[in-house]
Design a protein that fits this description.
Layout (H helix, E strand, L loop, with lengths): L16 E2 L6 E2 L12 H14 L15 E2 L20 H12 L33 H17 L4 H11 L10 E6 L4 H18 L1 E5 L29 H4 L8 H6 L20 E5 L10 H7 L4 E6 L4 H4 L3 H10 L6 H9 L4 H14 L5 E6 L10 H15 L5 E2 L5 E2 L13 E7 L4 H12 L7 E6 L11 H15 L3 E5 L3 H10 L4 E3 L13 E3 L30 E3 L7 E3 L2
Parallel strand pairs: 4-5, 4-7, 6-7, 8-11, 8-13, 11-12, 13-14
Antiparallel strand pairs: 1-12, 2-3, 9-10, 14-15, 16-17
Amino acid sequence: MDAKRAPAGAHNKAGIGVWTARGRDKEPRRGCRPPPELLVVGFLGTMALLVLSFGGGGGLMPIGLPRTELVQRPDAASPVHGDPDRDKPASSLRQDQADVRLLGGLLSPAFGEQSCRSRYASYLYRRPSPFRSSSYLVERLRRYEARHRRCGPGSPIFNEAVEHLRSGRNAARSECQYAVWTPFNGLGNRMLALASTFLYALLTDRVLLVHAPHEFDGLFCDPFPGSSWTLPAGFPIADFEGTFTMTSPASYKNMKQAGAISGDHLTNVTAEALPAYMFLDLIQSYTGAAFCEADQRVLAKFNWMVVKSDVYFATAFFLMPAYGRELARLFPEKEAVFHHLARYLFHPSNDVWGIVCRLYEAYLAGADERLGLQVRVFPELPVPFETMYGQIMRCSAQEGLLPRVARDDGAGRNSSAVPPRDGAKKMTSILVTSLSPEYYERIRGVYRSNSTDAGGHVAVHQPSHEGAQHTEARGHNQLALAEIYLLSFCDRIVTTAVSTFGYVAHGLAGVRPLVLLRAPSPEMPAEPPCVRSLSVEPCLHAPPQQMCDAPEGSDIGTRVPSVQHCEDVHRGVKLFS
């Protein structure tokens, strides 16, 4: 039986469908149901958080999902894992669950739950994080939040700083300095660059502000209590896209290349003599302009800085001795930098969380195992479908990903599945995220035509197939963010090399994914088909070609033990623990 298609008008082409054992339509239930073993945990966490936080208003905007066909589920409900806390006093248990709910202190309890439902709920859908945030990071985040309230939009200090900017003056002895992030490229690139800009703000005591054009506005909740991170209406700089280009005279790299400024030149220059703002252009084509310590001394004199990037430039700070001690205290586990920053910063808005909840309920809620498969074929390397599908199958056979399909002779093929629990039939959900529907359709066909070797139930899902990336469309970005979160809820994650979409998903989950390697050419298959990443961190694709204090021609991937070359982009670097 063919998979059903979304009806006309379905949200953003969501819900390609799933293959069902019985071919029976079933409407997904409205709402967001966490895994059953976590319902009690969530209730206790809610009660504890009510003591720590104040209420708020808001609600989910309803979103219609297409009718989907659900695989017949085993009669037995998913088992509840043994409770290691059953002998703890109730007060201790409540405190423990409040700590888990706040991600070990990363999150402030000072928000109302209804204002941003994902903030205190998303942890329920993921496995516990293997990384513990440092007490110093928690302390620094609370200090940053206080600074953001004091200096953020609407405050007298902010209003005064805006007037200085409007008048073209870079005031001396300013109490607050600002890093204004402006988006560039796709959603994954934007999230990596925004997290990097926030880390820069932490290291330099700046206040992070976000320029949110239409397609980005409303994707995320404000992460800082008591103040917004969005630039308010009436900000003196209106045309960000036209002003901040590679040829902008305000660009630090252009001023530096032209010899207009340098660390030596500005040693004795007062802040008042500088322009009102500086544009820090850190897109992939040029990331080496700002990571010398002399550069940082220059940049520290500017009260307003606009940052534009499409890469995870946070990695570069770990190559700078000036920030070494602070970064070691903030992140004792180097491979958890993005994991902590992303879980702190990025909380889907109620609109997006509504999409996440409905897709989770329809696709993942009843599974014993959730496998996420992210497939991205880039225009500059158009690998044919059969080649890419063959690579996925070879990776599956190598790593035991997809449930085994029974053959007539009793042997299994494709890959090995985890054995069923106590003879019960296992429910496996395979979530495919791709711009193309072909991978979903082919994998679905395998399980439609063959039974599994272990006799389990397999459901194959794909929320959307947009065909092409449309970063300029808010609806596209909402669905992309929802799919990133769904991937991060999976037990095992397979991503495509170079994909920032995949980086964000496995970074949020805190897992080391299997990475489908890039083929050397469209005609030649990748060998090996995939590798296990040795770090949770994203890859900085275009690192600075040379650090200022390094010998010419030296390899920056060997300068410090925690920064090494990436598995998927050899010239790139990433953080390792």
